[in-house]
Design a protein that fits this description.
The chain has 164 residues and is α+β, with helices and mostly antiparallel strands. It has helices at residues 25-32, 88-95, 105-118, 124-130, 142-163; strands spanning 4-10, 13-19, 51-54, 57-60, 73-75. It binds FE2/S2 (inorganic) cluster (2 copies).
């Protein structure tokens, strides 16, 4: 099938890729751009392992074609950390044992990032509801929720310190 050149803005960089109209965004990210943080789980929009941010919204990247993301701002888990430090959510998942096998983790963290952007002071219920579209086979979710709540607290502390 004929391939079309499109521009994807990923993690602050504009990248040109050649895609077939049927190519899913998750495959373009992983196979062409070598961003293997987003994982392929179900490919049917159930598990959330492929979650990325597109124009400030959480999107399961197996649910849209790469051509549909042309021109949008895409952030994958690789784009959350700064060059010299992990994102607070990443550190928090490590400290609070928010992962076991890690397969769901990039999607969980990317989704949690958006959740905290929209609600910087979530309750436990808010976190559980906000992560309801991301499945984990290992952890029982308890430590994932704990990690997100701890990250929210740390981010708020950092914000207050920056404003002082
Ligand atoms: S791989 Fe996209 S939701 Fe499961
Ligand atoms: S840590 Fe294994 S699926 Fe979540």
């Amino acid at each position: 099938m004929k391939k079309t050149p499109i521009e994807l803005n990923v993690n602050g960089q504009t990248r040109t890729v050649l895609v077939e109209p049927r190519e899913l965004l998750i495959h373009t990210l992983r196979e062409q751009l070598e961003l293997t943080g987003p994982h392929v789980g179900c490919e049917t929009s159930h598990c959330g392992a492929c979650t990325v941010e597109i124009d400030g919204r959480s999107v399961k990247s197996c649910t849209l074609f790469a051509v549909q993301a042309a021109g949008a701002e895409i952030t994958t888990v690789e784009g959350l950390a700064s060059p010299d430090a992990l994102h607070v959510l990443q550190t928090s998942f490590r400290e609070h044992h928010g992962l076991q096998c890690g397969y769901c983790t990039p999607g969980m963290i990317t989704r949690a990032h958006r959740l905290l952007q929209e609600n910087p002071n979530p309750t436990e219920e808010d976190v559980r509801f906000g992560l309801a579209g991301n499945l984990c086979r290992c952890t029982g979710y308890q430590n994932i929720v704990k990690s997100v709540l701890a990250a929210a607290e740390e981010l708020n502390t950092q914000k207050e310190a920056a404003q002082a």
